[in-house]
CRP-like cAMP-activated global transcriptional regulator
Amino acid sequence: MKEYSCQYAAEPCTRKVPIFAALSDDDLSRISAMIKHRKFTKGQPLVLEGALSDTLYIIQRGHVKLSKTTPEGKEQILHILTNGDFFGELSIFNSDELSNFSAYALKDTSICMLTRTDMEQLMRDNPDISLRLLKSVTKRLAHTENLAQSLATKDPEIRIACMIMELGDKYGKQRGAHIHIDLPLSREELASYVGVTRETISRKFSRFEDSGLIELIGNKQMLIIDLAGLESYMGY
């Protein structure tokens, strides 16, 4: 874990985060002076489930997965985060908060961190930040509830199609008529995200590829060929 500074970067992390969007340049500079900066290598934990947490983590550059361990001892991925996303916001509102998830770097990742004390001061000076944080917490809770419902009720093929669309929306880049995705997760992690086995992921990917919906490029890249076809699985 290495230290670095984004204060004088072309795009500091504070400018990427929606909760700071309404602040002035002077306020953003003041926040940048408060921030601690760290670099995490691929696979390194940022925080572990059950550990004491008092920090807001902002992703300057990279990918992070948030996950929980099921009663059966398996990993269930909750969220995949990227540049400008943040987590740990619940610790800002509660003292002695224990993390209810683990966070791991999916690639070499640069992180900006604000302590609870600093965030409390910022929210006193800028009450709008509290509202934006609440909106973020609500949105993330809705995502988790939808994930739980999906895992409980939807056909695995629908869940996988939905995951591909989500990855395309968050990580995809338009290339001609297709959407190119650098997959942030391994096949095993993708399986964990939608609650199926690795073999099921591989089998369904092959089926989607044979149907002309996607094209796989090795294990880490995918093209969405027929977005409308994938949407049809969701009843759109």
Observations:
- Residues 24 and 108 are 30 Å apart (CA to CA).
- The mean pLDDT is 83.
